[in-house]
C-alpha cells in the first residue's frame, strides 16, 4: 500500500469506523499498534510498522499521533466516533478561519457553522490552511471567525495535537 492509501485507511479506522476491522479504540481514541497491523492484514489492508511510522511522520496535516513509546496510535482530531481527546480548553487567537465553498454560505448565514457528524468543528489558525481545506470541495470561500469574542462570550475552544482549533459550533453573528 502507498502512503496515501494507508493514510485514508487510518482516517476511516481511527476517526470513523474502527468496527470495520473489529478494532477497539480506548476512551481517548488510542488503538494498539500491533492489533491495528494484525487486523488490517486480516482485512486485506496489510502494511508494515515501518510504513505506519512513515505515514505518521510525513502526513502533511499530522492527522495521526503515537504515544511516547509508539505502542499506541490515534487520530489527532476529526472523529465521528465518541472519544475524549483529553484536551483542555484554551484561549484562541482573536481570529480563526474556516474554509468552505459558496454553496454552503446560505446555510451558514442562517445556522452558523455546525460540527455536523463530527465531535468538533475545525478552525484554522491561518488563511492559507483554510484555503487548502476549502479547496477540497471547489473554489474556496474563507470565513473569518471572531474567536476571541466567542471565547469572551463563554464558548470553549481546544487545540488539537496537530494545531487545529476545535469548538462545538460558531453562531453566524461571529462570522465575517
Task: Chart the SSEs and their pairings.
Layout lengths: L2 H14 L14 E2 H10 L6 H10 L5 E3 L5 E4 L20 E6 L3 H7 L1 E2 L6 E3 L3 H9 L4 E6 L1 H6 L5 E2 L5 E3 L1 E2 L6
Antiparallel strand pairs: 1-3, 2-3, 4-7, 5-10, 6-9, 8-9
Describe the structure.
This protein has 176 residues and is an alpha+beta fold. The protein folds into two domains: 3-75, Orthogonal Bundle (Arc Repressor Mutant, subunit A); 96-174, ADP-ribosylation fold (Alpha-Beta Barrel), CATH 3.20.170.30. The chain has helices spanning 3-16, 33-42, 49-58, 105-111, 127-135, 147-152, and strands spanning 31-32, 64-66, 72-75, 96-101, 113-114, 121-123, 140-145, 158-159, 165-167, 169-170. The strands form four sheets. A three-stranded antiparallel sheet has the order 1-3-2. Strands 6-9-8 form a three-stranded antiparallel sheet, with no helix packed on it. The protein has a two-stranded antiparallel sheet with strand order 4-7. α1 (3-16) packs across α3. The relative contact order is 0.16. The mean pLDDT is 93.
Amino acid at each position: 500500500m502507498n502512503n496515501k492509501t494507508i493514510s485514508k485507511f487510518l482516517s476511516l479506522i481511527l476517526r470513523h469506523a474502527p468496527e470495520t476491522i473489529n478494532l477497539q479504540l480506548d476512551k481517548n481514541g488510542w488503538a494498539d499498534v500491533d492489533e491495528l497491523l494484525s487486523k488490517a492484514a486480516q482485512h486485506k489492508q496489510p502494511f508494515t510498522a515501518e510504513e505506519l511510522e512513515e505515514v505518521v511522520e510525513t502526513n502533511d496535516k499530522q492527522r495521526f499521533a503515537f504515544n511516547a513509546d509508539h505502542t499506541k496510535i490515534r487520530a489527532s482530531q476529526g472523529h465521528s466516533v465518541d472519544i475524549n481527546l483529553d484536551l483542555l480548553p484554551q484561549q484562541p487567537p482573536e481570529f480563526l478561519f474556516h474554509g468552505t465553498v459558496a454553496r454552503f454560505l446560505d446555510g451558514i448565514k442562517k445556522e452558523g457553522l455546525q460540527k455536523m457528524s463530527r465531535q468538533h468543528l475545525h478552525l484554522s489558525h491561518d488563511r492559507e490552511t483554510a484555503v487548502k481545506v476549502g479547496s477540497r470541495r471547489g473554489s474556496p470561500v474563507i470565513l473569518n471567525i471572531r474567536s476571541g469574542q466567542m471565547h469572551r462570550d463563554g464558548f470553549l475552544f481546544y487545540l488539537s495535537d496537530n494545531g487545529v482549533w476545535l469548538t462545538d459550533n460558531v453562531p453566524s453573528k461571529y462570522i465575517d
